[in-house]
Amino acid sequence: MKISPNKRYNTVAFYAAIVIAINVVLVAALLKADTIMDFLDRCISVMSPITWGVVIAFLMNPIMVRVEKLVNRFIFKKAPKPKASRAIAVVSACLIFAGIIVGLVAVVVPELLKSVSEIIDNFSSYADTAQEWVMKLFKNNKQVEKALSDTINRFTKDFSTTLNELRPYINDVLSGAWDFINVIKNFVLGFIVSIYLLFSKETLFAQAKKILISICKRSTYTRLIRLFRKTNSIFSGFIGGKIIDSFIIGVLCYIGLRIMNMDYSLMISVIVGVTNIIPFFGPFIGAIPSGLFILLVQPNKFIALLIFIFALQQFDGNVLGPKILGNSTGLPGFWVLVALFVGGGLFGFAGMVLAVPVFALFYALVREGVENTLRKKNLPVDTSNYYGDDVENLYGRPKKAIPFTQEELESIVIPSIDEANEAKEG
């Protein structure tokens, strides 16, 4: 007796087996959660050099590209030598990047350690100085004087308690030193990995395209490539530009504070520069600790510092930032705030830095999808057409071709042709 298979039941059995397997995996994951987390931590630790390498290569790539263009234009103009120009560009990028890192560490770290040490040693005298300044400035207004004095006393008490709690951990320097050694090891290995990535980035991209083409339809491949290009454009434009912008702001802050003869100029400049990487909230986050330091050390210059930082951030937001960044994210202000709240709440400082480009990518994809759908319905894509209560009148307008930009043509027309061809073949 010949048994003929039933395709319908086979399909049901196949999906049922998949559901059962997923449930088994989920139950096993819940029962062995600690083991799985240890395994994931070990995998992350093992992959740390690769992660460092990708990040370092991402930061060095713009330098390498610019140097390579200059080499091809002035050195190998008549007889192009791709391998030689790439080698010169990679070596130059490595030297520039390493020089910046070494220079910052050599100049900034010792001064920061010195500043922190002085603050810890002289904290009591700084608190007394701030207390005297408040009493002298607000001697005719006892309520304000009492409020500020109580605030300084609470801050002094909390800070002293924190220092006393941290002192026992000073003996654990070896453990911290070992963690620091691991960071240095991962950074060095990552630097080596980044060199290989820069040398062979075209080959790696070609291999990735080869894999995508082999497993995807042409329309899917086109959409993925467009997504990767948009991701690279947003992230490289935002992160690279923001690092340059924050570095310039930090240098300008240091110069201004030195002219104003303020103590801990370098430490405050580092705080302002680092926090400036965070959009919108960065200036406020940097101004608060900086103002507290100066209030304790030089209270008579507290107001001057706040005015200076405010003026510096206005210059950055209205002049320097737009020149360097332009509109690299294309994200409206409201969604910037949403991205910062969500990213900062979930992932802290790193989340606040990366939230804006990630959300900008998501926003651009959603906007593009909505606009494509409107074009298919022969409706306008500009938001100004949708103000008011007469949206229904949009459907009564005569149908006409809505022009596409060059980027939209590349991302929309090609997939549409592919889908038409697939429909014909079907």
Defining key terms:
single chain, mainly alpha
Could you give a quick summary of the protein structure above?
The protein is mostly helical and 426 residues long. Helices cover 81% and strands 0% of the residues. It contains 13 helices and no strands.
Low-confidence runs of at least 5 consecutive residues: 169-176, 398-402, 411-426
Distance between the termini: 37 Å
Strand content: under 5%
Quaternary structure annotation: single chain
* Number of separate helices: 13
Structural class: mainly alpha
Instruction: Estimate the helix proportion, in percent.
Output: over 70%
Alpha-carbon Rg, integer: 29 Å
Mean pLDDT: 76
Overall 3D shape: globular
Number of strands: 0
The ordered H/E elements are: HHHHHHHHHHHHH
Major beta sheet summary: none
